[in-house]
Task: structure prediction
Amino acid sequence: MRHTEIIPAWRDQRDSVLKHALVVMTTEVEYAKDTSPMWLK
Result:
C-alpha cells in the first residue's frame, strides 16, 4: 500500500466525519433554541 492510495481516502473520510459533526452540532443548537430559550438569553 502506498501513501498516494491511502491519503485521498483518508481525506474523504475525514471530510465526511467533519460534515457529520457539523450537522449534529447544528441540530443540537437548533434543538437547544427550541427547548430552552432562557438558557441562551
